[in-house]
Amino acid sequence: MLKTICYISDSRINKSITDFNNLIRTAKTNNAKNNITGILVYKNNNFLQVFEGAPETVDTIFDKIRMDQRHQNIFKIIDTSIDQRIFEEYKFGFTVVSDKHALQNLSDYLEWLRNADNMIANEIVTMVENFINQ
What we know:
Strand 2 (37-43) and strand 3 (46-53) form a beta hairpin. 45% of the residues lie in helices and 31% in strands. By secondary structure, it is α+β, with helices and mostly antiparallel strands. Helix 3 (100-114) packs antiparallel against helix 4 (119-133). The termini are far apart. The protein has one domain (2-133): Alpha-Beta Plaits (2-Layer Sandwich). The protein has a 5-stranded mixed beta sheet with strand order 4-1-3-2-5, sandwiched between helices. The chain contains 4 helices and 5 strands, in the order βαββαββαα.
């Protein structure tokens, strides 16, 4: 059994490209080490992240995120068990979405997921699409 968490938060990072690149690098490295798949979307100084993996690992990572000074006003939207990974096939693991091309690729993937007729996947798709389109 696996677990997924989806949350949104306000960013506290400086808007400098160095700070953002450091966040991306850290997220990708840590998630690869911990066998975590998912996405991180940054838009309008806000984050939406979906990550999935072993339940205890996902819970530990979310606890670290809640304590991370780069986030404020964290709101957990989804916290549930899943039978299979939703984002395993998307960019082969964990992906940061921060530009229009990446958003289009994500939109295409979300459309593919919607057709999979998985209730949890559809709920996550709706959350991500609402975030992207705000």
